[in-house]
Design brief:
Layout: H1 7-16, E1 23-25, E2 28-30, E3 37-42, E4 47-53, H2 57-73, H3 81-97, H4 99-110, H5 114-136, E5 142-144, E6 150-158, E7 161-165, H6 171-185, E8 188-192, H7 199-211, E9 218-220, H8 225-234, E10 240-244, H9 247-259, E11 264-268, E12 274-277, H10 285-296, E13 308-312, H11 313-328, H12 348-363, E14 367-370, E15 386-389, H13 396-399, E16 406-412, H14 415-423, E17 430-434, H15 438-447, E18 452-455, E19 489-497
Parallel strand pairs: 7-8, 7-10, 8-9, 10-11, 12-13, 12-17, 13-16, 15-16, 17-18
Antiparallel strand pairs: 1-2, 3-4, 5-6, 6-19, 14-15
Bound molecules: NADPH dihydro-nicotinamide-adenine-dinucleotide phosphate.
């Protein structure tokens, strides 16, 4: 068996990487039409990684033209489903084969820990390409129950050219969540990664060509939201957009659609999710591990982060003692070190934003039990794991999405109070419930207005289960599961009259 890898090993891999710097349009690398580029920074060190093409509306237009031509040619959109499947399975294999270099690239680009990057890119990302590849040649249309003299078929067709606008917190995983069903469905794609994390989706586009995806079907166009992102939202020849990011920008996409071609908009947005611990819960390692993960996984930069931890008064003290002991053991620092549990915040500005929420919590009277500042003595954009007690539902840190490593405990006296506080939010993405009582678990699972309820563990489910939000966390569309295909397929009725 080979020795476990060290930070030095991953730095070696990093030194050999060729980082993408151009857009990938119509199967080829291209500079931005304007010739401009922007600096890409490593959040783990604060140093520049390189420069990347600064694409704007002109580049998006080139990408849409290539995507439209590929779609109309039928090189992908009319390929038999089992042939599309073969390409997606090859892509899954290629991602697995290149998982280590992709994971190192992602860690450098995003400040995420190498452990998380390896788990996501070595495991989940290829699973998505495999799963939707396997699903598409088992996806049937329907025949409607009409009379003797007619045959009415309901067939599924790809939507056309889709825009995917992505966040920075799980760069390649979010790309896979959307891209795998979009490609399986036969769509052509214009993908805009977040400006902070363009690298791995650019590399993925190159691997997709190697897997056999025809040129023009997948175009990756790096750039900024207000220029490239807006150009995707407003383009008259994009049929549908699937977006993950903030609720504020999600709302812009609805406006862009209404002011352009009424394209379909699928939205997966922010959250302020509750983690409920009832008085009968076992305060064991699973529960504490879940509480820690729910708040600190990915440095809390997670739309489904459960930072509002609503804990019954009877078990609050033991819960907090154990949470603090575990949080104190978390290693924060070098994202490339496999011993690191929590990497960096995505940018210096984002770290300032997170720290300002922590200050707001203190000034509003929440009790700071640990953490609360930038990790001193480290380069890069680190924030200490932070735990508050005595959170009140009316405080800003209990209402607004922080997107940082902050866990706050709200004490309650029983299930109904827990439910009332959990529901008191504009968001509705996720919730976790810990109880040994099956009736209470189902009572909460059915009453919580959110897209996913996890019982007795913190999880977003797996590839087979749909993920998305109620209320201001999302539209009716879902990522993951067979339901994700609905974003990329449309129904056509073919009514045949027989003589
Ligand atoms: P945004 O919502 O701003 O970014 C998401 C994507 O939208 C990025 O590709 C971004 O481009 C693009 N975008 C930004 N502005 C526009 C615009 N005016 N028109 C079209 N596209 C646009 O998220 P941020 O990265 O700024 O993060 C801010 C907050 O959003 C976080 O602190 C968190 O609260 C929330 N968020 C939620 C996520 C989730 O998973 N639900 C993921 C990321 C953030 P660009 O890269 O240039 O910003």
């Amino acid at each position: 068996m080979s020795e476990p890898k060290t930070a030095a090993d991953y730095r070696q891999v990093a030194s050999r990487l060729k980082l993408p710097s151009k857009a990938f349009i119509d199967g080829a690398w291209r500079d931005a039409v304007s010739g401009r580029s922007f600096e890409n920074v490593n959040p783990g060190t604060g140093e520049a990684l390189g420069r990347v093409a600064y694409c704007d509306a002109a580049d998006i237009d080139l990408a849409v033209k290539a995507a439209r031509r590929a779609f109309e040619d039928g090189v992908w959109s009319r390929r038999a489903p089992d042939e599309r499947k073969a390409v997606l399975l090859r892509l899954a294999d290629l991602v697995r084969a290149h998982a280590e270099s992709l994971a190192v690239m992602e860690s450098l680009d995003s400040g995420k820990t190498i452990r998380d990057c390896l788990n996501e890119i070595g495991g989940e990302v290829p699973t998505f390409f495999q799963w939707y590849g396997e699903l598409i040649d088992k996806t049937f249309g329907k025949v409607a129950p009409t009379g003797e003299k007619t045959v009415a078929m309901i067939v599924k067709e790809p939507v056309g050219v889709v825009g995917l606008v992505l966040p920075w917190n799980f760069p390649l995983l979010m790309a896979a969540w959307k891209l795998a069903p979009a490609l399986a469905a036969g769509c052509s794609v214009v993908l805009k990664p977040a400006e902070q994390t363009p690298l791995t989706s650019l590399r993925l586009a190159e691997l997709a060509i190697e897997a056999g995806l025809p040129a023009g079907v997948l175009n990756v166009v790096p750039g900024f939201g207000e220029t490239a992102g807006q150009a995707v939202g407003r383009h008259p020849d994009i049929d549908s957009v699937s977006f993950t990011g903030s609720t504020e920008v999600g709302a812009y996409f609805l406006k862009y659609a209404s002011e352009s071609n009424l394209k379909h908009i699928g939205l997966e947005m922010g959250g302020k999710s509750p983690f409920i611990v009832l008085d009968d819960a076992d305060i064991n390692d699973t529960l504490i591990g879940s509480a820690i993960n729910a708040a600190f996984w990915n440095g809390g930069q997670n739309c489904s982060a459960n930072m509002r931890q609503i804990v019954d008064r009877k078990v609050k003290d033991v819960f907090l003692d154990r949470v603090i002991a575990r949080a104190k053991s978390l290693v924060v620092g070098d994202p490339l070190d496999p011993a690191t549990d929590m990497g960096a915040m995505i940018t210096a500005e984002h770290r300032v934003r997170v720290l300002s929420y922590i200050e707001a919590g203190k000034s509003e009277g929440a009790k700071l039990l640990m953490g609360g500042s930038a990790s001193v003595g480290k380069t890069g954009y680190f924030v200490e794991p932070t735990v508050f007690d005595s959170l009140k539902p009316s405080m800003r840190i209990a209402k607004e999405e922080i997107f940082g490593p902050v866990l706050g405990v709200i004490a309650v006296g029983g299930l109904e109070e827990a439910l009332a506080i959990a529901k008191d939010t504009d968001y509705g993405l996720h919730a976790t419930v810990f109880t040994r009582d099956i009736d209470k678990a189902f009572h909460l699972a059915k009453r919580l207005p959110c897209g996913t309820v996890a019982v007795n563990s913190f999880t977003e489910g797996n590839v087979a289960t749909p993920f998305g939000g109620y209320r201001r966390s999302g539209s009716l569309t879902r990522d993951k599961g067979a339901e994700a295909l609905d974003q990329y397929l449309q129904n056509k009725t073919i009514w045949v009259s027989l003589s």
